[in-house]
Amino acid sequence: MAGTADLDPDSERELSLRRLPLGDIDPARSRHMWTRSAVATNGDLVVTGEWDGTVTARDVDSLEPRWTAAHPDHAVGIATLESDEPAGSAGAVVVAGRGESGAIAVYDAETGEQRWRYETAADVGEATTDTIFYLPYVVALETDGELLYAAVRRYERDGERRQWHSAVYAFDPDGSVRWSYETDASPIALDLDADGDRLSVGYNRCMGDHDNGLVVLETDTGDLEWTWDPGTEGDRRVGDISFDGETIAVSSHGDKCGYLLGPAGAERWHVDLAVETEIDGETLYAYPNHVYANDGRTAFVTGNTYALERRETEGRHPNEHRIATFDADGDLLWNEQVRGFVHGLATDGDTLVAPCAQNFRVRDPETHAVRRFDLESGPTGVDSLAGIATAAAVDGETIAAIEEPVEYHDEGDQRGEYALRVGSLE
């Protein structure tokens, strides 16, 4: 992928994203921080989740609050459940927590009334240390309109012993657990196939008995259908997963490649994304953190540069902070810089939205932006921010993002603010 020409930046179009301040939050520093905010949009609703647990639903046009709820943990993930009528509107809001209880809660989209709540710490255990990385963390949500699926993990360390506890759940509409799938690995992503028959689970760290980066479960029962693994040494396995028909795309943290798998995990193709590369005496690599597949095209997004033998590095991998899209045969369609760390992709059809945060190697504030792409043709727009973009959502023509303030360690000036940003793709 290195050396492929970038697309013409003049093809990008800048929108004016409305800004609504969200209050105070400690500024991020040079290195990217953990997930602290969430946003979702559905129909006439935009919902934000904040680090202090505040969840607010707003009218997407006026941004006037419809309701506010206090989630028991840090509100770091949001999904919406469809209502039967009117068609296309949100009927409920699901909030994923990171905190003492690891709470999953469902709120009525019209009133904010809590319908049910489940505390995952009862299954994965409570934090053994009062540190953010040890708290139960609901890392992913998926829904087929009827069932809600969630993945939670908890980390602990005792001397040289490191261990993960995790569970994947299927919840019925009343909040009862239809089934759960527990392992001693660290889940990072969930995705449903189009028919809602299979749920894929990506595991990022496997350091115990569970030794597969990808499992596919039957959604009605939770029974295991098949597994796949990059087969690499070490505990790093999968960064993200995405169904497309009968195939599933996988970004591999094990070998820094991208894969397209067919039924039962048969490999269709794989591509080098940010594999180990020697530059000026250093062996550098970057993790493929995100993948999205739709209609025979697959996009992968890579993250920060790391050195094989030490934490710090002066060099940069040529394919760090890039998005690259491939066709059904694994041939490159286009690739483009995203310039900063992307916390997570927001997608709708062929539209991709990348909230770009800081690039801690170069500390260039021009990397702070919400970047938009078309899966087939490439860049379509960029919305520059003073702060960093840490979450995004897209639904039809509506785009929403969270801006957080940042203060580079060697400058001392705060850039940007904690704010909701909303605009239209029309």
Automatic annotation (TrEMBL):
Which protein, by its recorded name, is this? PQQ-binding-like beta-propeller repeat protein
**Which parts of the sequence belong to the Pyrrolo-quinoline quinone repeat domain?**
52-226
Which Gene3D superfamilies does the UniProt entry name for this protein? YVTN repeat-like/Quinoprotein amine dehydrogenase
- State the InterPro entries in the record: PQQ_b-propeller_rpt, PQQ_rpt_dom, Quinoprotein_ADH-like_sf, WD40/YVTN_repeat-like_dom_sf
Q: What is the lineage of its organism?
A: Archaea, Methanobacteriati, Methanobacteriota, Stenosarchaea group, Halobacteria
In its UniProt entry, the species of origin is given as Natronorubrum aibiense
